Amino acid sequence: MDGEASATTQRPTLAAVAALAGVSGSTASLAFSGAGPVSDSTRAKVLTAAQTLGYAGPDPRAQSLRRGRSGIIGIVIEERLQDAFRDPMSLAMLDGIADETGNAGAGLLLLSDIGGPQLDIRSAPMDAVILVGCSTRLDESVAVLRQRGMPVVAIEADDMPGVLSISLDNRDATARLARHLLDLGHESVAVVALPLDAAKEQQRLPANWDELATSHTTRDRLRGLRDVYPGFGGIVATRSSIDAGRAAGLELLEGADPPTAVVAQSDLLAMGVIRAAESLGIRVPEELSVVGFDGAQVDAMGSYDLTTVIQPAVEKGRAAGRAAVELVEGGSPTPMAFTSELHIGTTTAARSQPERSRAG
Amino acid sequence: MDGEASATTQRPTLAAVAALAGVSGSTASLAFSGAGPVSDSTRAKVLTAAQTLGYAGPDPRAQSLRRGRSGIIGIVIEERLQDAFRDPMSLAMLDGIADETGNAGAGLLLLSDIGGPQLDIRSAPMDAVILVGCSTRLDESVAVLRQRGMPVVAIEADDMPGVLSISLDNRDATARLARHLLDLGHESVAVVALPLDAAKEQQRLPANWDELATSHTTRDRLRGLRDVYPGFGGIVATRSSIDAGRAAGLELLEGADPPTAVVAQSDLLAMGVIRAAESLGIRVPEELSVVGFDGAQVDAMGSYDLTTVIQPAVEKGRAAGRAAVELVEGGSPTPMAFTSELHIGTTTAARSQPERSRAG
DNA sequence: CGCCATTATCGAATCGATTCGATAACGCCC
DNA sequence: GGGCGTTATCGAATCGATTCGATAATGGCG
User: Fold this and answer.
1) Is A357 on the interface with B (CB under 8 A)?
2) Does domain A72-168+313-339 have CATH number 3.40.50.2300?
3) pLDDT band, very low/low/confident/very high, at A286 (cuts 50, 70, 90)
4) DSSP for residue B135
5) Dist CA B292 CA B269 (whole Å)
6) Per-residue pLDDT tens for B240-273?
7) How far is CA B72 from CA B108, B141, B150, B328, in A?
8) Which residues sit opposite A164 in a β-bridge?
9) Local structure of residue B307 (DSSP, 8 states)
């Protein structure tokens, strides 16, 4: 007798099951995968043997080596998870992605491209990658992935060869918001911008933002604003949150020459700006118009109906997930461009008349 | 010549690199992994060959088969991602987990145990699993995982053999909150509970909640309240959110015989209850005391300083992540029990005198 | 000068399954 | 009853790396 198998905590292998069932390994495999003709009696024998041995099914590692697929799709997040997941838009997208990839039987592997000896894009066993919240510096990541022959989907990034892009009309949508403000007579407009790059300190928007920005989304939205208000200025917030918006709003509104309208680059930031205005006794929209971006249903929005553009975040995620799945299966999905929808709420109004200015 | 390799889009293998470099496969492997003595000149040759062929490093699939490790830790979420990620506590824990597993060089694979042909706990290539937001019905999941010989860490679950548990003093902390209310003279206390199970409809708390509840956290916290207020009743909210809290709060406060104090099972729910009170013209804390749970920094908390218990959510996640890593490495970490800290804010006050009741 | 301890390299086995081509068994029809 | 098309099963190759034990080359030391 060979009583050596039970000493270690080794799981039984398919070969062991086959041996016990008295069939060959190939037949046992067929019996499990159902990918071939197997008689009912044989299948039963195999299944019984598996039961006896406590065989939990084929080892996924061996399977993925043989099949050349792991069933895993990587998602690259550019920030700390906690930051990424606080943003309702990221969440919505993630949910869309999860929906599609889940339906296709794939799992989602979270990867961050920052720091650490982490399991990273060069060593993770995945079949495709989705880049979320893309910055322009992801070129390196893409290079690595291309070398690995890995299909890549990018959400809101520049077009890059070999990368399937899912885009949003950030520029145009912002321009539409700006034009709405222009129609209302606003001349002094300031932005509360999303971070330009990884450096997260609040600052005045530098004049050369177009060169500095590594975040596509931020840059494109700023461009949209510039299309309508060439000389606009503003503040760069530390992140997309109500608190960051309030801080930025305070700096804007308490400074010299406060604007009559603020373009916030997210609904959370917009809500923060409104808070800031409230705390300074500035009425919205009578004395200050505020617009956002996203169409997030911000809890705590109170009685305001924010003027904003509504982006199809879940759909964007869905599209990305679907594209990734198609790429894995050898298909060639087409890039998709999504458009946002202007929603005019109660936070914008015609510019108050100059004669109401105090002193003169 | 054998010009057949370039036709397909096949990635080069380590063997190809070794061949070009004129060394054996084993040596090439050593050169890459650094796990053995290799002369500098040989290493250089190998690296050059790799460069030439565009070799992107060892195939993770083959690696994980051979090594018996994939570097992936699975996280089982019991709800839709979107739901899970909306809860600040889940996020904080996730962040703690990600921190520790990331440092250990492991990636996080998101798994949901609901529906679909998903890559699931029986077929995902992972080294360990962390169960988050555990319900009592996860016994089946645990059975599957044990059969696979997979290390399992569970956060806030019953003790189960073979499962390393990370627990929180849900019951005791709730009892402390309740005692605080008792000290303030409150006799009529109602709960706004977290969902008892997957069914997500708002309902009156059934009398036999102790049997019905499949969520450990919900049940243990309810038990804590019962320890102090044996006959309490209340509402089961649809989820942990401000909106759900408001809805539940309205039902409680508009109903017959409204309570003088509400124990909400999360800070978000508590905030919702406060909102409900505000909209009904009921003053907090003068006419209604409200306590929460979690110690979440709820944006939009306004001027309230919520009485609650602060749980170390990030630390809980860290502990789970660390435990998972240790289990993978063959260690035997010990279970951990975390405790929450009572924070008395401005949302609780002594019960208003009965003579203030209207009519009689 | 010869022996032994290092150091660098190699060959072959191994991880655990899948899959292709071959073989054997079987019933069918003319 | 013999040839043929099915159906079930098997053997062996393969996926792409890692690693153990063996071998060859190198250097130090007595």
Assistant:
1) no
2) yes
3) very high
4) B
5) 7
6) 999 999 999 999 999 989 999 999 999 999 999 9
7) 6, 18, 12, 10
8) A153
9) B
CB B56 within 8 A of CB A148: yes
**Strand C contacted by A71 CB (< 7 A):** no
Chain C nucleotides reached by a protein CB under 7 Å: 7-21
* Contact between chains at B81 and A94 (C-beta distance less than 8 A): yes
Residues of A within 8 A of B246 (CB-CB) are none
Q: Tell me how far CA of residue B320 lies from CA of B77, B218, B328, in angstroms.
A: 14, 20, 12
Interface with A, mutate which of B73, B119, B141, B246 (most A CBs under 10 A): B119
Kindly state the tokens that stand for B328: 């993978």
Per-residue pLDDT tens over the stretch B158-182: 888 889 999 999 999 999 999 999 9
| 3 state SS of A201 | coil
Q: Is the CB of B41 under 7 A from strand C?
A: yes
Give the contacts of A35 (CB within 8 A, at least 6 positions apart).
none
| Domains B72-168+313-339 and B170-307+344-356 agree in fold | yes
Facing residues of B115 across strands?
none
What amino acid is encoded at B29 in this protein?
Answer: S
Q: Please report, for residues A28, A40, A48, B151, the alpha-carbon distance to residue A20 in angstroms, rounded to integers and kept in the order given.
A: 10, 17, 9, 27
> Measured between CB atoms, does A297 come within 8 Å of chain B?
no
- Please state the three-class secondary structure of A263-325 as a single string: EECCHHHHHHHHHHHHHCCCCCCCCCEEECCECCCCCCCCCCCCEEEECCHHHHHHHHHHHHH
Written as six digits, the tokens of A33 are: 């995968």
CB of B110 within 8 Å of a chain A CB? The answer is: yes
Contacts of A118 in chain B (CB under 8 A): 102, 105-107
> Which of helix, strand or coil describes residue A174?
helix
B102-154 pLDDT per residue, tens: 888 899 999 876 655 567 888 999 999 999 876 766 778 888 899 999 999 99
Q: Where are the domains of chain B?
A: 14-58, 72-168+313-339, 170-307+344-356
DSSP state of B233: E
Q: Is the distance from CB of A14 to CB of A29 less than 8 angstroms?
A: yes
Q: Is A310 exposed, middle or buried (0-12, 13-18, 19+ CB in 10 A)?
A: middle
Asked if A119's CB is within 8 angstroms of B106's CB, the reply is yes
What is the mean pLDDT of the segment spanning A123-134? 90
Distance CA A212, CA A201 (A): 14
Chain CA centroid to CA A23, Å: 49
Rounded Cα distance between B316 and B166, Å, is 7
Degrees, nearest 5: CA angle B314-A294-A133:
55
Given a contact cutoff of 8 angstroms between Cβ atoms, the answer to whether A351 and A310 are in contact is no
Using a CB–CB cutoff of 8 Å, tell me whether B65 touches chain A.
Answer: yes
Count of alpha carbons within 13 Å of A199, Cβ hemisphere only?
8
What distance in Å separates residue A69's CA from the closest CA in chain B? Answer: 8
CATH no. of B170-307+344-356: 3.40.50.2300
What is the distance between the alpha carbons of residues B360 and B357, in angstroms, rounded to a whole number? 7
Q: CA-nearest residue of chain A to B51?
A: A147
* Closest residue, CA to C1' of D16: B62
